[in-house]
């Protein structure tokens, strides 16, 4: 009798615990997080049912105070209550509650075209991707983006591209095709709208296959209101980016800090060093102590980066073993 390795056994147990206790797995599951979308949710459900006849459509209601649940059920969706507020919390609930070979994640505001789904899934399968992102910046209706949202999206996408060495153009898109392997394996921590950025960063940091495909992005219909906060959500997204960059690129992250501290140490210490060279005496003792302290902190920061980089590499190797086990 063969012996299963501990990592694979642990992974299998973890994934089993994430399920909803059912043995059934869908081929394609459309997952729609919703909060007060009674104006749009019915059309979104009907459009995806028409575009993907074999898919099962789930609406995860985030404690709506309007008729979202009733409208979604009447349109044919399976409604699951997800009371913990925040889009990130809802998507983590989806991971636990639904199992499928392919997940179609889309917002319930009616801005994304369901008609593009078959082509997106076809490309997703042909290229054997883990995440396909439907981007909005190339084709969008007038008024589809609020003031500064387009600029903020491009800025954050540029930062992700630079820090993670991956070309992305729309990290905030809510329309994505996800593989079962990726969606079930990757840990997610975000609670709110920064979840889209975290999905992209997790895929980039763990070397999953990502592709972006432009789709036509529409404006919200009348009487439908966005829940985004331009400034508040922007800072949360940037914070998420920094934290994930620290976790997955620790050597570079702490090397930058070490470099800044080393330059500060040099700036503070150059005077006392020249003074000692010329006179043999250090008169500016406080500056010398400051320079020494900053130099020690720079060394410690670089050492922390080296240690955490080793840990991160071990984590990536473990993740790769899990992926091979589930393939």
How would you explain this protein's 3D organization?
With 327 residues, the chain is of the alpha/beta class. 54% of the residues lie in helices and 14% in strands. The chain has a seven-stranded mixed beta sheet, with helices on both faces. β2 (56-61), α3 and β3 form a beta-alpha-beta unit. The protein is elongated, with a radius of gyration of 24 Å. Mean pLDDT is 82; it is low at 1-23.
User: What letter string, H or E per element, gives the SSE order?
Assistant: HEHEHEHEHEHEHHEHHH
Instruction: Report the portion of residues in β strands.
Output: 5-15%
Chain-averaged pLDDT: 82
Task: Please tally the β strands and state the result.
Answer: 7
Question: Radius of gyration over alpha carbons?
Answer: 24 Å
Helical stretch tally? 11
Task: Describe the main β-sheet briefly.
Answer: 7 strands, mixed
Give me the oligomer status: single chain
Structural class: alpha/beta
Overall form: elongated
Instruction: Give the end-to-end Cα distance, rounded to a whole number of Å.
Output: 22 Å
Fraction of helical residues:
40-55%
- Main sheet strand line-up: 3-2-1-4-6-5-7
Low-pLDDT parts are: 1-23
Write the layout of secondary structure elements.
Elements: H1 6-18, E1 26-34, H2 41-51, E2 56-61, H3 68-75, E3 78-81, H4 87-97, E4 100-105, H5 117-126, E5 131-140, H6 149-164, E6 176-179, H7 180-185, H8 195-205, E7 210-217, H9 230-248, H10 250-279, H11 285-326
Parallel strand pairs: 1-2, 1-4, 2-3, 5-7
Antiparallel strand pairs: 4-6, 5-6
